[in-house]
Amino acid sequence: MEIGKKRQNTKMVPAPSQGIIPERDLYSSPVLECRHLGIEFGGLKAVEDFNLVIGKTEIAGLIGPNGAGKTTVFNLLTKVYQPTMGTILLNGHDLNALNTVQASALGLARTFQNIRLFGNMTVEDNVRIGLHNQVKYGMFSGIFRLPGYWKGEKEQHEKAMELLSLFEMQDMAGAKAGSLPYGAQRRLEIVRALATNPSLLPLDEPAAGMNPHETEDLMSKIITIRDTFKIAVMLIEHDMNLVMGICEGICVLNYGRIIAKGTPNEIQSNPVVIEAYLGKRKEAQ
Q1: 95, 82 in Cβ contact below 8 A?
Q2: How many CB atoms lie within 10 A of CB 186?
Q3: Does residue 174 sit in helix, strand or coil?
Q4: 69 within 8 A of 34, measured Cβ to Cβ
Q5: Residue 256: phi, psi to the nearest 5?
Q6: Block mean pLDDT (10 aa), the chain, length 285
Q7: In the 8-state DSSP scheme, what is residue 3?
Q8: CA-CA distance, 89 to 91, in Å (whole number)?
Q9: Regarding beta strands 44-54 and 32-41, do their DSSP bridges make them parallel or antiparallel, or are they unpaired?
């Protein structure tokens, strides 16, 4: 695995809950804690004994071979699936029995492996859907177009344009989302998720389908998002240059179980991780 060019020199330190987090987050409560998390489908354990801590402003990576259970973990975290066992704490709030809408209200947004934009709506309207939880006028004001409605609409427009400008997409605001190039659609999905004002932003293969230049730009943008909004970002990604370049703590999953945790340097040289990706070397006869 190749080390990314934008490697962040972050010191990782032990957390009180037996994890590692960036030193800068040591005196803040973790944004996410997973304790013995697991799920079964028809008696098959898809994820088992998943334990993870993510610092308040950490860029964390979740990697593993195809079929390792990474997207299942994301679906558990975002309450698409309800876990069979274990606990998920988001900013100290137990997500047990909550649905996706309730989890989003607590500060959890995500992107998907397969793009899920509203293709017939404009770029700006896709972002404004993410801003729905920040609408300040009521139904009465909206129906009768009272001054509060127009003030709120202006604020929503300005906020959407501000978010789009992070990815230099403000000039595309009036275009149909489905007409955008693939890479731009990927970026728009991130902007829409960011519009919900999350404290943790899980990104499911954000660089999929992007060329090297777009991936390089995405690396910088993820760091900018973390630094600007002071939030945590969690990546599932197969592009090891991206993962090793910007992630501070990395968790490796295989067959639904964690096989390694550590910094990029530690993960890259871990023989168990190398074996999971490349297979076991045969002994010389």
Answers
A1: no
A2: 23
A3: coil
A4: no
A5: 80, 5
A6: 58 71 93 96 94 97 95 95 96 94 93 90 95 72 67 86 95 97 94 95 92 92 96 95 95 96 95 86 52
A7: P
A8: 6
A9: antiparallel
| Contact in structure between 73 and 47 (CB atoms under 8 Å) | yes
Exposed/middle/buried for residue 93 (C-beta within 10 Å: 0-12, 13-18, 19+): middle
DSSP codes of every residue in 207-241: TTT--HHHHHHHHHHHHHHHHHHT-EEEEE-S-HH
Q: Is residue 285 part of a domain?
A: no
Q: CA–CA separation, 214 vs 244, rounded Å?
A: 17
**What domain count does the chain have?**
2
Contacts (Cβ under 8 Å, ≥6 apart) of 87? 33, 34, 35, 36, 37, 94, 96
Which residues are CB-contacts of 166 (< 8 A; sequence separation ≥ 6)? 191, 194, 221, 224, 225, 228
**Position of tokens 């274990």?**
86
Distance CA 58, CA 21 (A): 7
Which of 140, 164, 195 terminates a domain? The answer is: 195
pTM: 0.88
Tell me: do 140 and 51 sit in the same domain: no
84 within 8 A of 39, measured Cβ to Cβ: yes
Residue 115 lies inside a defined structural domain of this protein = no
